[in-house]
C-alpha cells in the first residue's frame, strides 16, 4: 500500500512545487490538499497545470480548510478520514508577509500551527510530520546560529518572525510525542534553473527599487552592506525537504535549509545592479535615511518595497547548517551558488516585471 500525504498551504508557492514532485513519486498513493475556501479556484487551476502532463497521478482531494479553526472547519467524517489515512503530514500554511499585523500573524502562524499539531497527534498511521519554520526565528540575534538553538530573548524584527518562533516552540514540544522534523528555510527565491517564482518579494524588492533608478547617474549602496544575504532557490528547498521527510534519521531534528556560503549584502546588491542595469553601485546611503524615506507610503509604493525589508541589510548572522550538510552528503542535493542562478532570477523578473499578480501590494 502506498502513502497518503496531507499538505497545508496549497496552492502556495512552496506547496505547489512540493506537490509537483510528489505527483511523480510512485510511493504516493493519495494526497489531501488543505485549501482556504477563497483560494479553491486557484488551487484547482494550479492542480490541473501540475497533473495535465502526467500519465499517472495519485488520488488527490482538495479539502476546504481554515487552520485558525480548532477543527480546521472539517466535519467529523472528514477529520476522522484524514486522521486515519495520513502517513505524512506537511504543514506549510502561514502568513509570510514581513509587514503582517500581529493579530493576523498570531491567528494563522501560532494558533493555526497548534491546530495542525493536534491533527498530527490524532493521525494513527503517521510516520512523519514535517513542519516548515524559518531561519529567521533567530530574531535579532547576530553571529552564528546553530540548528539545535531555538529559545532566546533577543526580540524580533517583525511579527512574522515572532509568530513563527512562537509556533516553532509548540512544534519542538511535539517532537517527544510525534515523529517530527522541523526545517528552517532562508529567504526563498525562484527556481535555480528556470527562475520561476510566485511573488516578487524578498530580494525582488531590490529589483523593484533598482528599476526606478535605471537612468540615475549614481546608484548608492544602502547601509554598510556587511550583513549576509541568505537566499535559497525553491528547487533546493523542495528536494532537501522531501529527502528529510523520507529519512528516519531526520526525525526529532531541526535543519537549516540555508546557503552554507552566503554572500554579503553589498556583493549581492552589486551583482543585481550589474546584471539588471549594467551599473556598478558607488557611494553609500545611510540606512537611517532609507528608513526615514520608507516611512512615507507614497515612497514605499513608488519603490515597491516594504520598509521591513531594510532590516535584513543590517542583519549580520550566519545560519550554521551542519546537520543539513551531514544528512545530504550522500545525495546529489546541494544548495547552488547564488551567482550561478542569478541570471535566471533576473530573466524571469524582466519577463514578468509588469504582471501585477507577481507583485506584493505595498501598504
From TrEMBL:
InterPro entries xref list: FAR, FAR_NAD-bd, NAD(P)-bd_dom_sf
Residue span(s) of domain Thioester reductase (TE): 7-240
Highest taxon listed in the record's lineage: Bacteria
Protein name per its UniProtKB record: Thioester reductase-like protein
